[in-house]
Amino acid sequence: MHSQARIPNGIHNAIDYERLAPQAMDAGRHAYVAGGCGWDATLAANRAAFGRWSIVPRLLRDVRGGHTRLMLGGQQLAHPFLLAPVAHQRLAHPDAEIATARAAEATATCLVASTLSSVPLEAIAQAGGSAAPRWFQLYLQPERAHTLALLARAEGAGYQAIVLTLDASIQLPSRSALAAGFAMPADCTPANLAGFPPAPASALPPGASRIFQGAMRHAPTWDDLAWLLAATRLPVWVKGVLSPQDARQLQGAGVAGIVVSNHGGRSLDGAPASLAQLPAVRAAVGSSYPLLLDGGIRSGQDAFKALALGADAVLIGRLQMYALAAAGALGVAHMLTLLVEELHACMAQAGCAALADITPGALLPCPPAAAA
Ligand SMILES: Cc1cc2nc3c(=O)[nH]c(=O)nc-3n(C[C@H](O)[C@H](O)[C@H](O)COP(=O)(O)O)c2cc1C
Fold this sequence. Notes:
The chain is of the alpha/beta class. It has a single domain (16-60, 68-184, 215-353), classed as TIM Barrel (Alpha-Beta Barrel). The chain is 38% helix and 12% strand. The protein is built from 14 helices and twelve strands. An eight-stranded parallel β-barrel has the order 4-5-6-7-8-9-10-11, surrounded by seven helices. It has a two-stranded antiparallel ribbon with strand order 1-12. Helix 5 links the parallel strand 4 and strand 5. Bound molecules: flavin mononucleotide (FMN). Flavin mononucleotide (FMN) binds next to helix 14.
């Protein structure tokens, strides 16, 4: 552990970790983390969507009993921020996900460990203690035996839910990462997949599509989802949902909850901002079905807007990498503490003493000219 880690000067808000990230990471790694895909249209849309709403201050309300506790999927959380699954964390810091797990414990934050973590899922679980639930993000493997092995390891290590990511069968590269000449370093390759030989490359027949018959050959289908639901005793969430129809069908299939997400703009460039889809997805699944959102959350105010528009909680993606790069576990814990405090301040000024008080009526659409 790097015992000399210090909070850098100039960090007053969680978003400052993003502002200072170019100083904490080399240019190629920063471009890989910060980038979206294609022309970064969806990446930009995620942020812009928050600028379309303002928060209405309310006066004279007594918020002295205020708190941010919630029940999510039957589990008690101290606050509505989760650490999103973010792969390859050794890109940001030598302690990688071990540092993130320590920060999660220090701040009682639910951590969602990526299938593609730089350290094994068991080591993350061991570093994370028991202050908050810990979930495992699953990418279905081409071989079902390999998926079953990951599930057994996650269950054995005490993970309490599976988050199945379904929006990343095809990921176009980030143009800025390509331009910066980024290549994944050898010490960042996914530790959890070390024992799995890569699927043998098979030549495509003449006229076949590199996408339909190539990249999508092993992409999950509704049958695979049904198989997974029967293969684990843990609740299964699905991440990467933007369509209200998909949301309703997933709910009907027995999925425990869904994450409205476009993979931080890294999957389909041209997909809508996740915040923009949230109200329609909430309407499709009803008021009590567990719903999370990620994509573009950089402040407590952003989280407030997502909660007002129908999310039960939000996940934090890139900010954890930036804070990790700046100051390891201390940085991630500090970033989360700032987010929680920003949410407290926002709730207090909007007259909300509990998350349930944050309703659509707390927001006003900004006039188009003022939209960011
Ligand atoms: C560097 C990087 C790696 C990611 N790795 C994964 C992953 O392994 N699994 C996954 O489901 N999502 C992954 N994501 C997407 C995040 O979980 C999340 O959806 C996204 O970062 C949220 O947007 P934000 O970065 O604006 O907060 C990754 C995102 C980034 C930036």
